[in-house]
Amino acid sequence: METLMAKDLTLGYGEDVIIDQLDITVPKGEITVFIGGNGCGKSTLLRSLARLLRPKQGNVVLNGEDIAKVPTKEVAKQLAILPQSPVSPEGLTVEELVKQGRHPYKTLLKRWSQEDNQAVKEALEATNMMELKDREVDSLSGGQRQRAWIAMTLAQGTETILLDEPTTYLDMTHQIEILDLLFELNEQRKSTIVMVLHDLNLACRYAHHIVAIKDKNVYAQGKPEEIINCKLVHDVFQMKCDVLYDPMFGTPMCIPHGRGRCLIKEVVEDSKEKQAN
Fold it and tell me: Where in this chain does the record put each ABC transporter domain (predicted)?
């Protein structure tokens, strides 16, 4: 069953078309990753799926309904988005930030409830942020801050979470920490997770489904082990490479060609021979 779909979707800013007549289906209960070169439209597509950008043509369907016709608060109960490098108001604590995720459930007649308290508590526990709930968000490390924002999206109580480059500006340790967290949320809660990632090898390791964007449309989509190969990397990223298999996970692993120190001469010669053939 599909949770999120785009049909004949055309997106852009002013006269510039970024995405042109794109069709895409996001598998329910899986992790989907958008990949592609800089400026190819990955983040633009993600914003449109969250109804933050009005299509020039086509539509986005969320749980069987045209998302443009669904009231904003109803959309926010079904889908949460975490933009790239979000900024919180100065002095806001982690718990106060996470509570913002309950905004879609507030009305003039419905104030803060025990249900809201429970949702915030569960979100803090799921992201291992309970001990930091009284800390100001600005005082946290990059990885901790990102976990606080993810906790806010969890408190929103949606089945679908969109994230725009959630590992940007994080060191390797914190990148893995955040991706492990999202993987666990998918496994334990069956959350549908859609994110933009720049690291192709991490995308292959964590994604059930990859969508490669090129020339304003979908170049290829499917399981990483089915679509990631040397030709895709060359066509999408204009980069020559070898694609091996990650010895720990068995997922595709891209080894880019280029200048640099090489201690194994036979590898270089073998690679040159492959290119010649």
Answer: 4-240
